[in-house]
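mind reviewing these tokens:
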Amino acid sequence: MMYAVTANSMLRAGTRAACLPLTIDSAQTSLRLEPGCHHFDVCDGATDTAVSEVVQSRAGRCDAQVRR
């Protein structure tokens, strides 16, 4: 079974420039290192950032985070 995981973050004023590259790096790392991660989107707005990820299982996602 596949799961879609989404998260929205409101950004404090002046933090977007620092936050966006870290969010993109996290997405790329998830795709590269987590076998169950099939898709990862980063949606950037002026005052918020949203991420959406498609994973193979909830357990696989949690295990990958613990191994880091």
